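During the second year of the project, the team shifted from modelling isolated chains to modelling whole assemblies. The rationale, set out in the original proposal, was that interfaces cannot be judged from single-chain predictions alone. As a representative example for this report, we include one of the complexes processed in the last quarter. Its constituent sequences, exactly as entered into the pipeline, are reproduced here:
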Amino acid sequence: MHAPIGDVTEGARLIALGMHPKLLPSRDAVYADLVRRFNEDDEFRAVAEEVAAGLGLVVLAVSMRAGAVLVPEEGSVFEQKLDEYARRAAFGDRRDVEKVLHGLAHLAVAALAFPRPDDLADDAYVGRVSVEQVDGVVREACRMLADKAAVAEEAGDPLADAPKLEYAWRVYMRRPETALTKDGRLAPATTRAIVAKALRFLADQGLLAKMNDEYSGTYRTTPRYQVQVGELAAERAFAELLEMGVVPVADPAGSLRTVGDTS
Amino acid sequence: MAPKRDGRADATPRDEGLARRLKALACTAPLHDLDARKGRLDWCDASVYQMAEIALQIIDQVTIAMDFDRGADHDDVIRRTVPFIAAQAPDRDRAERERVASWVLDNLINVGSSDRGFRALYGTFGVSGEYERRAFDFKLLVELVSPGGEIYLRASDEAINVLVGALDTDVESAQIAAEVKLDNLIRRGRLSDAQLAAQQARYRTVQYAETLRRKLEATRRDVRAVDWEHEVPDLIDEALTHIEGRFRYENAILTNITQIRDEAEDPAHKRRAAELVEIVGDCIGRHTQLQARLQEAGAVFRAEQDRQQFSGRARRAAVDLFGQLLLPSLTLPVADAANPTGAFFRSAAGLSAPGLPRLAYLVDLLLTPSKERTHLLDEVPEPDLVPAPDPDVFSEELWELADVLLDLEELPRRLSGLLAEARAMDPDLPLLVALRVLYAVSPEVGVAMRQGDDRVLLAVDDGARLDDPELGGADLLVGIAQLRTGEMAPDPVAAEGVDVA
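Output from the structure prediction step:
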């Protein structure tokens, strides 16, 4: 198949537009045209996908609501690295801890934005998350796990010489929720600051939109975020868990409620 | 009943009580540590201050200020503690006392550590009987945010434990016990004991309110998190019954001690009774507050249910983010949790467009003032400085070379000869050799004896001048003196191979 050179240009343009996450097809006639063509013209679609593949990107979805949703393949130059994201963190072993905390914050933001599995599938759903809510729910979950651990094992405290074997919930719970610095600002190493950073970052990426400052910052989800989480991120994380032998049991109604009873 | 012959099993009982005691001990360590470190404060002479006492006062203030919605403000705590510090150091100025108070407060929060907590190591015996070192993490004061965004302090369970020693007791039964005791003490007129008991009862009330507060807070955050069909209504019923009982009880006590206060003639007795009236009054106030909260709880639930609306059923199944991703990730060890969270981040965080520097923008870029970070800032730590150990002037190798050189045989040698030989080996060596020889003019024989050495280096000045390009002085005679161990004769040194005694 030889695509006309003009199609390649157009395909690349669509990909380029997809790299501006805040740009929406509904507000840009050229973009809207390209989106329509992508969905109707199989040949054009193949060209655009090839262009993306050449750049190390996967076209996850192209729609009027979300625009062209692109996700980097592993090792792509466009890949967002957790290392860099959490680079203000400390050194050595602590670095791993910091990375995990930031990763957990992102996972928690998504979990609270889409509390039930249905919410990921429902195109019209708009989730709402706030710093206070995310931190609060994760803390609650940690407390529940702590209670469970207290029942299950007798010597609950972690071994002193194996920091990497410490449970993630313990690390999260130990981190203060907030703290004042000497000059009256908020310290960045607290869980609220970590969650706030995740929300701000996602808003900068065009994946969330800030609504107001209530509850230390309230955001709503965008269709793009819904697609990214639902179509790919959740599955990839799920696959990692399966690979480690952790097989989470599904509950079609969602399990956010199970915080209360420790099933 | 036969005693176990296996010594190992005897030596390794799984003693939970021991671990608990070790932890209780650890909770007090930060307080002792304050007194140990006060000598290093360079901005005042801290010897007059009893830091552990100040710390207990601060924990006390925070605990008393804790109620349902919030806790103590940093500045309030310091303000209330200053009079106590003034009693310790009447001749110091207010600024210094405030600084001491805030130093102690910062240390109780443990400002400067990223977890803002304390960690104590303790040993237990594992399942198979081997000794294991475990880490116990605890906090004394924690900072929390109120719904209005203000930051306030609350005392942790461990801190209340340090105060009243009751972490492991059941709050409900302890509360009743404390009040029965209080009642008895008042009837028998033992007011000083009664005051102590009343204070303890108040701490329990605070603790009880704290437990209830946490449960209600979880409800407010997510209605589905709590069982509103049975669990919470039962809880509210129980709590209301409890409060009703306490009300009747405390009012009776209050009448009783008010009477004692008014009738007492001994001023000390009167004052104590007056203090008791205040404490019990405060308890009643707390119960009223608790009751109001409990009555509002149902309305909170209904409002939250409206807010957190439930929508229709799903069309296709997807991953349950909370139950299938977040919870399992939290239960993993840190090293393993990095995989799923990292994978999620990579695919959910969007693209990162690599920045392309362009010469045309360079000047603008350089001239742009850096963005002010108004909200978050890296911590500016104020380190407690420990004087650095003196760096070694002479390296390990030099010491070894000097050892070889000074390991003299039978015959004593002149310093000049040693120096010349040393210079040939290493240019820095002569100085070390000279210093060691100088030290040998008056060796510490007693120390050498105690260490069990059988000989010491001995140097003697016989009047010869040292002719050396770097060093001057007497050209000492250096030899080895044998120590006769076993007897502490008036003259324990017998010069051997040294021709001067």
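Residues 226 and 235 of chain B are 11 Å apart (CA to CA). Chain B is about 55% helix and 10% strand.
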